[in-house]
Task: structure prediction
Amino acid sequence: MKKGFTLVELIGVIIILALIMLLAVPPILNSIRSTRNELSDASKKIIYTAANLYVSENLNDFPKYDGNTFCVSIDTLSKKEYLPTIVYDSATGDEIPKDSLVEIKVENNNYTYNMNNECVEVVAKTLIETLLAQYNESNTTGLVKDSTNPNLYYYTGTNEEVGNNFLWYGGHQWRVLEFDTLANTLTLITQQPLTAIQPASAVWTTQSAYNSSYINTWLNVYFYNSLDSSIQSNIQKTTFNVGIYTNVGEIKTEQKVGLLDEEQYKRAGSANSFLDIKDSFWLGNRYSSSYVRYVNGDGGLNYGDTPLSSECVRAVIKISDITITGGDGTLASNYQVGNKVINTDNVQVGEYINVPYSGSDNACGDDKLCTFRVVSKDNDSIKVVLNGLLPTTSKWADSASDNITTNDLIYTNVLNAFIANIDSKYITTGTYGVGMYESKNSYTMPQSTTITINIGLPTVGEMFSGNDIDLSTSSTKTFVDVNTIENPTVSSSYWTMNRYSSSHVRTVNSSGGLSNFGLTIARGVRAVIYLKSGTSAITFTGGEGTAQSPYTLQ
Result:
């Protein structure tokens, strides 16, 4: 007679089978999942083609997550209409998950693709969206809302309270003054002084007088025309208050570029606010029929004799909202708009370039790279100024002469030795304005007389012929990162190419204005050279054109 299994034996068999299933099923399921997640080659080709088109068309505005590596989801490609709303695998017919990620590496204009769900998609945000995250209703400093306009936000307070509104845009470092969420616009002011000039031959008391002033022409002709066309097209015409300081709106002018008015400066907090750079700079308002308002070196409000005083210039513009591609808004990491270029032919005025240096005098630090900044461009060269000073001060000349020559001490003592250590394959000769800059002169007068040579000094009225490198001591520098400046504490002033009189030469001083010194007094030397461009353009090996990451010549 056959005996069946006891209950205990049956339970034991069931337990054993359950254990076998527990161990076997997960690998089988994982294998199935892996197979289903492994897209067919045909599907990958479609996705990679869409990703290639998306990144190629949006490279400058595309936020990177790691160096030159980008990451984009199927969902983003669908929303941007580079792929259909639902994407199916051509082999299995299954819907490809919208959160699937494509990793794209860009090296030397070559694109490499990989399906990689470990990469991180960085969602692009506009600048206004990014700045709004700083707002809190309880804020009394930092980002606050205007009491009369619920769409207007502005900054007020010290640099400690307003430390995250720096923007690198169009070759310049800006601070955001305010933004309007309805108009979708932002108002910006350059963080650094751009030049130092006399603002007018006489104080403006009418709109037409301001419009024809030296300073308005400099801003809306010289400065505006130096900007890339993509930046120009994004600048909105706006109304600037240029009336008397007690009634700044007494005279108004509509321009692309203007000056800060006294009410804006006070709204930001005046002295010791984020707008106080411990440098003197012109405001757009007159003090009287004889004087124009400016902020002095300690942040206080002052007034200057228009035909005589030469304070620095900071531009104010209003732009439409832009997409941010990097940075956190601090001095060391400005918000950025992607604009990386590959050679000297397509750089923007204001961008930084590292030039190899072969000298052993430590003129440009241990890295043997001298950092220059682009002053201007023409068809076959770009004019650049050293972002700092040479390590040795010099007299300008040992005797009076009409204009600077290569026989003057500043050449024989310093400039000739410096240029000898820069490879001639990088440089070309260029024109330097050596005309006099006397009282009541326009900024164009220094260009009235020129010399052609392979190295020179800043010319009054040109871009960065002011205290943009901050000549104060390293412990009190306010508007630049001291680590980006060559020899930052060598001198508290530097020579220009231009005389003030037969016995005095124009210098840029530590408070931002122009001074006059005798020829035989030693002052700092800031070299200017021309780099080859156009048909002789020099390729960059890397960098982003910012002070922290200059382009580097190959």
